[in-house]
Amino acid sequence: MLHEIISAGFGGQGVLLVGQTLAYAGMLEGKEVSWYPSYGPEMRGGTANCTTVISTGPIGSPVVSNPTALVAMNQPSLEKFLPTVKPGGVVVYDQSLVSSNPALLRSDVKMIGVEAQQIAARLGNSKVANIILLGALVKAAEPVSLTAVQEALKMVLPVRRHNLLPLNYAALARGAEIVA
Amino acid sequence: MSAGRERLVAGYPESLTEQAFHYCPGCTHGIAHRLVAEALDALGLRERTIGVASVGCSVFAYNYFNCDMQQAAHGRAPAVATGIKRVLPDAVVFTYQGDGDLASIGTAEIVHAAARGENITVIFINNTNYGMTGGQMAPTTLIGQKTTTTPLGRVAENNGYPIRMAEMLATLDGPAYIARVSLHNAQAVVQAGRSIKKAFQAQLERAGFSMVEVLSTCPTNWGMTPVKALEHLEKVVAEYYRVGVLVDRTKEVAG
Amino acid sequence: MERRLMKGNEAIGEAAIAAGCRYFFGYPITPQNELPEYMARRLPEVGGVYLQAESEVSAINMVYGAAGAGARVMTSSSSPGISLKQEGLSYIAGAELPCVVVNMVRGGPGLGGIQPAQSDYFQATKGGGHGDYHLLVLAPASVQELVNLVREAFDLADKYRNPVMILGDGVLGQMMEPVTIADPVPVASLPAKPWATTGAQDRPANLINSLYIDPLELSAHNAKLIAKYERMAREELRFERYCADDAEILLVAYGITARICRTVVDLGRQAGLKLGLFRPISLFPFPYAPLADLIAEVGVNKVICVEMSAGQLVEDVRLAVEGRVPTVLYGYPGGVVPLPAEILSRIKGEGGANGVRRS
Ligand SMILES: Cc1ncc(C[n+]2csc(CCOP(=O)(O)OP(=O)(O)O)c2C)c(N)n1
Ligand code: SF4
Known about the structure:
The complex is a heterotrimer of chains A (180), B (255) and C (359). Chain B has 255 residues and is α/β, with parallel strands linked by helices. Chain B has helices at residues 29-42, 61-64, 77-87, 99-105, 107-115, 156-159, 165-170, 186-204, 219-222, 226-240, 251-254, and strands at residues 49-53, 68-71, 92-98, 121-126, 129-130, 136-137, 175-182, 209-215, 244-248. Chain B has a single domain, classed as Thiamin diphosphate (ThDP)-binding fold, Pyr/PP domains (Rossmann fold). The longest helix of chain B is centred in the last third of the chain and has 19 residues, at 186-204. Chain C is globular and about 70 Å long. Strand 2 of chain B pairs parallel with strand 9 of chain C, so a sheet runs across the interface.
């Protein structure tokens, strides 16, 4: 089993956290994991991305040419990474931030558009849009279990933010529900 | 002992080895060494002292000081001393640096050691030129002074102005004790010895950074006899670089 | 033992502390800032000292002083800062002081960039500063190996009284992987250093020095250093072979590039290509003989050296191969991290060239 997941969007949207949570969850399940973020000036207001690899065997390259899954939180990220996704892969994207340009769709991958911003607003905190997308991804691509992700969130969120865990769990569940 | 007719007025400091100095005849580096050694002896510090030799005529200082020594790269002695002091806070750590070493290539190191209030003692020998490499201009070279790289004398338009390091460092909050002394005559030497001892006492009090700038002669490169060089030191050099205590934040004064 | 997900840079810090390192002298530069920041947080908790120096020049000289005073001490930087440390490293090697220096390499020359590179290979392995000397250079390829080699680096530094460099890159420093860190060594149990300058109480004075003004003395000192490097070449060769036993095409790569090449080997084998990988872990001493033996022993008919630089590692590879089989360079300088598919298509002859990046 080898999952290679790219998570991309604007800096500040929490795309790095999506990848880190997946990495923690994989580790908790006893798998091999690696997480590699983009770094540098592009992160200040620009686009950020990270690559998470989850595998039952030793991990070779922590950077990947053709991811098995993509979480895209903005249009430039979808444009950049969609063409690289492996046929049969999973693409979860924030519909409200991506204009539904038909050229941006592929029929050989599973495309899942989520109104993450709106759902997050309804949950009372637009910051959890990333966790909604994470829920959808985990349900659709199953790199790790939802329970492991819940545990991982406890490790990713600093202890002083643990009052936000119920909100994050709700966001995770809403994301998962969207994927039939 | 008091009954004896002979009285020892000046012994050989325990903190000096018996190795003969390699300095030129009449050079005051030797006197400065002796003053440092006497201060270490007087305070009983030899066995807990680590000295840092720099690059310049005093590069072989490690052959003369009878204590643990490290030899540092040109200008870096304050950084090396910082490393030692952070590992051994109870040890006494000093650097012995020339004016090319401290005021030119090592400016960053000395300024920041002083600004940090690094609890070390710096003996700064200002002889207004680069002695070891043959008498080139130093940052401390006086306007008009001839050196091998200012053959017509230092000209401000071309070479800028001399740096008064003691005054410059005295603007910082880190130093506990900064003084300038001169070695031009016996009285001045006695005063210099007191200041050097005081600087080590500041370190023992953990008061912070201490430095004594020692105005020194370089008869060889100044092209003077030793006696003439001492006169020049008093009349010309010490005119521009005024002796005195620039900073004293030690307990004795505060209390 | 507990598995923790850690960033490479932070894992180095924890591994160093576990190895008994209590002193760290740093200066900010991307992409290694997480290490000094971690040390600034952690060292005071274990009774150690973190100090931000005024420059890399000062930081390495603080390391000189601290190492001379007998402590386990570390500094880190990235390429431009490592250039500034070369003076100090030469003095440290000359004065035979043990310490560990980390270089998280970024693209150059000059200010270059901040993305991962391997273009400091020559500087790291061939001396770097002035004079006849070498650092012992270790190149990990995963965060766990980073942790293990940092621990070993301190022991090797003490064993040889020589500076040891951990040569990483931006990827290794920034990436997170699960690690287990071995139990800390009690500082009190570390081997004594009777040569250190700690105060000449009840013993003759000690001296830390690299100056030998008499050429005969200096050449004797050089001979002693050379003997040390020869001993390293006998005792400290480290390397890994992957799918090499029946390889027809042998990739040679170190550090993160070797990880990428591991995936290339897997992909290539799925496509019917008999690829193998030789990964030097000690870059100085370089495993010349193990590489030469491998080529002689297995029917390798081509060697491909893959590096994130414009042809540095390849020189040592060619010294090992001695012209027995064609050796080509896949060089990716400038902060470009080659992706596995890109390398594989080049092996298949589908394009790609040195120094040219994908769009
Ligand atoms: C990096 C470096 N640059 C230059 C030198 C050459 N050098 C040796 S001593 C010296 C000048 C020392 O002058 P100063 O500090 O004034 O001490 P003095 O010899 O006058 O006592 C120089 C430039 C060196 N050793 N290292
Ligand atoms: S050159 Fe000058 S400073 Fe150096 S030993 Fe001779 S007199 Fe002293």
